Amino acid sequence: MNWLFWSLLSALFAGLTAILAKAGVSGVDSNLATAVRTTVVLVFAWGVALATCPANAVLGLSRRTWLFLALSGVATGLSWLCYFRALQLGEASKVAPIDKLSVVFVLLFAALFLGESLSWRTGVGGALIVAGAVVLALK
Question: Which of 57, 74, 118, 132 has its CA 20 to 30 Å from the CA of residue 66?
Fold first, then answer.
């Protein structure tokens, strides 16, 4: 099983996330809903990690790893707070495509901060993602 298999599963579960979250956020404060979801993710992720890695592996993580994973966690938390608020206010079929503009930000950030190359294919693909998100959101 390669990166494509896992990427497609990720997309499938992300799609389910939007539908389940929209159903769950109805009539509930979006920040509270995010906290509940985050708690479930926390317990689930630690369960999987402890089932697949030795518990003392945590002690072997470098400061750099802790820093970047912590910053990633803050970014994820902010993203989820905004996403749940958007789902509370809008239709899932409009919110999700705009949320997927994150792909375009990844392309730009990967080039700026990770030195990954931007090619004409990346530009065209990114432009198509933006166009698709706009078309879907403007129903």
Answer: 118
Instruction: Quick: pLDDT tens for 59-109.
Output: 999 999 999 999 999 999 999 999 999 999 999 999 999 999 999 999 999
**Geometric angle at alpha carbon 10, from 130 and 102, rounded to 5°:** 25
Element (H, E) at 102: helix 102-114
CA distance 133 to 85: 18
What are the residue ranges spanned by the domains of the chain? Answer: 3-91, 100-139
State the Cα–Cα distance between residues 85 and 89, nearest whole angstrom: 6
Virtual torsion, Cα 103, 26, 41, 78, nearest 10 deg? 50
Residue 17 in tokens: 């996330």
Residues ≥6 apart with Cβ < 8 Å to 87: 18, 21, 22, 25, 30, 95
Would you give the DSSP letter of residue 15? Answer: H
| 8 Å CB contact between 12 and 62 | no
Phi, psi values for residue 101, rounded to 5°: -65, -10
